Amino acid sequence: MNQIIIVGVVLILLLITFLFSRKEQVSKAESDKESRKTKKESWTQEKIMEYGEIQTKKEALLKAIDKKFKDDPEQAEDLKTLINDWAELRIKMFTDRRSWVRNPEKDKK
Amino acid sequence: MADKDKIQSSGGFAKTTNFKWLGVGVAIFALLALMPTPESMVSKASEIFGSDLGPEIIAQRAYNMKIIIALLGMCTVFFATEAIPMPAVALLIGLVQLFFGITQPARIVSTYAHDAVWFIAGSLAIGSTLVKYGLDKRIGMLVVKLSGTKTRNIVLGLLLGTAIPSAFINEASIAPMYVPIALALYTLTNKTISAPNLGKLLMMSIAIGCMVGAPMSPTGGARNAIMIGFLEDYVSPNVSFFEWMSMGVFYTAIMSVLMAFLLPLLFKPEVKDLSDAVSVLKSDLEKHGKMTGKQWLVGGIMLLMIFMWITDKTVTAGILGFPLGLGGVAITGAVLYMLLGLTSWKDYEENVSWGVIILYAGAISLGAVFKASGAAKWLADSLIDIMANFGISSGLPLILVVILIGALLTNLMSAGATVAVIGPVVLEMAQSSGTNPVLVGVGLAIATSLAYWLVIGTPASSIVYAAGMLEAKDFIRMAVFAWPMALIVMAAMVIFWWAGVLPYEFEIDIARIPGAGG
Q1: Nearest residue to B236 (alpha-carbon basis) of B450, B29, B462, B516
Q2: How confident is the model at residue B516 (pLDDT cuts 50, 70, 90)?
Q3: Could A21 and B132 be called an inter-chain contact, meaning their C-beta atoms sit closer than 8 Å?
Q4: Cis omega before residue B180 (within 30°)?
Q5: What DSSP string runs through B239-270?
Q6: Beta partners for B150?
Q7: pLDDT band for position B449 (50/70/90)?
Q8: Does B499 or B10 have the greater pLDDT score?
Q9: Buried b (16+ CB within 10 A) or exposed e, B426-464
Q10: Cβ contacts of residue B277 below 8 Å, gap of 6+?
Q11: Candidate from A14, A36, A99 with C-beta closest to B76
């Protein structure tokens, strides 16, 4: 009789386990989905610049520095380095967000 | 079966202990272990090990059976809740045997060793190399190229394009590769016409394709390899790669076609032709260029391995005088990639989920001790006694009941765990009732692919769900129709394909009983 009660308790515990653990895992999947969605939404609020736009902007800024900092070549060099770094970062940001479908470079070993 | 970091970080591999569920697991173990040993266990121990052993030894053997049943109960909780890291469950299986004196220290490691473990390790390594060289993406590109522009054809293309590779590479590597393709098709269409249903349809096709493809071959998932490992004790010669494929292909083919009709009915797409989106996608994919020499070589070796798996017992055995076994072929492929400089050991270290290998080695150990201790026989006979009252304890009814149980349980815990926990019991039930263990075992393994109901049912479901187009209710809506349909297809497969076309009987095949001529 005791054995039947114990087996009954174990079966009930297993049933509870199945039901509640799945619930926990589903809510974890839902929160993962939500955080992914929030991240994507934050991207849409950022100003997206494609590769061509970044290059054009970079060229324009470098030209402006050449014009305006003729008398201070050292500062001009520093500013150019900053602009080149900024351009590289923007390009990296742009390409990193693209999936493998639109970014063949991503796969090249 | 290539697994990536993202798989490592899910499915209980990256988690730390959840003390609530750990407590429940330990409580179940304690309840069963401390319960007085049932008289039926003592009689079963006497029947299995011989009454001449003496009452004390028989009582000890019956006690061992009880501990193993308690271990099974605890593992079920851990597999379902991922309460502790999954590889820790695998190691715990050995520790319980050790601490309770069930297996001697010198023999404990051997309970983890099996050709199936080599097979899983080698397949994961081969899969990781295919993914490293982007061959999975080449398959995706081929699907876009061949599917045309009609939405229905694209759905069928996605279903087959995910199903076929899923039979050889882990679905968790296939699904993330296809998601950007589906997203691109949806986004490009959605720019002109709002098409939420199209997004759902494409994403669901990826998840379903992965689920229906995995049963087609032993490489489709570690659960298939584990089942082959369990079958080793019940049939000789064991199920070969080709034999499994011939049994599983029916399910994959029929389900792919049926789902290509069902899914567009459930998620009615807003557009019937995706010409514009497909042409933009094709031009993007063309930028990837042609396949490189190394990609051809990696693909060629994979094809060679499949050929060797299929012909292991014919061609290879003819040349060498003996077969290499599934594991031997898999490890040959993995080592060949390194010998040819295509990959490094570091790549394998980083891209192969070693936790999966340990987990399934643990499952093999559980199966081995379950059988050796007599616990499997006791549980199987007890269940058969109950089922006999309903006339479902042997033959076709037993096979169908096992399929139903597998299809239900896989929605409550992972497919691999379902096979690990109930595989040894149902095979013992098959043997005790004179039912063909091959049909019961392969039937169970295929049934565990029916995890349709929840977003966390399979890694592929979770991946497409995370993409954001599907809701949890979409999976339920699909499962309401697809789950019973899949069960009907499975029943048809057993009756008309396995027993009708293929040479299987529902009864045990005497020629394949180990030691009886097989």
Answers
A1: B516
A2: low
A3: no
A4: no
A5: PPHHHHHHHHHHHHHHHHHHHHHHHHHHS--S
A6: B273
A7: very high
A8: B499
A9: bbbbbbbbebbbbbbbbbbbbbbbbbbbbbbbbbbbbbb
A10: B184, B185, B188, B189
A11: A14
ipTM higher than 0.90? no
Distances from the Cα of B62 to the Cα of A83, B44, B69, B102, angstroms? 77, 8, 11, 11
Structure tokens at A41: 């939404």
- For A14, which residue in chain B has the nearest alpha carbon? B77
Q: What is the CA radius of gyration of chain A?
A: 28
**pLDDT (tens digit, 9 = 90+) per residue, B455-482?**
989 999 999 999 889 999 999 999 999 9
Per-residue confidence band for B220, with pLDDT thresholds at 50, 70 and 90: very high
Cβ atoms of B483 and B438 closer than 8 Å: no
Q: Do A17 and B21 touch (CB under 8 A)?
A: yes
Angle subtended at Cα A29 by Cα A24 and Cα A34, rounded to the nearest 5 degrees: 125
- What confidence tens digit (pLDDT) does each residue in A28-76 have? 888 888 888 888 777 777 777 777 888 999 999 999 999 998 888 899 9
User: Which chain B positions have a beta carbon within 8 Å of A30's beta carbon?
Assistant: 455, 472
What phi and psi values does residue B70 have, to the nearest 5 degrees? -65, -40
Q: Are the beta carbons of B28 and A13 separated by less than 8 Å? A: yes
Contact between chains at A10 and B73 (C-beta distance less than 8 A): yes
Q: Which residue has the higher pLDDT, B68 or B170?
A: B68
Residue B456: list chain A partners with CB under 8 A: 22, 25-26, 28-29
Prediction pTM value: 0.87
3-class state of residue B435 by DSSP: strand
Of A17, A21, A33, the CB nearest to B468: A33
Residue among A3, A21, A22 whose CB faces B35 most closely: A3
Among the partner-chain residues A10, A21, A28, the one whose CB lies closest to the CB of B80 is: A21
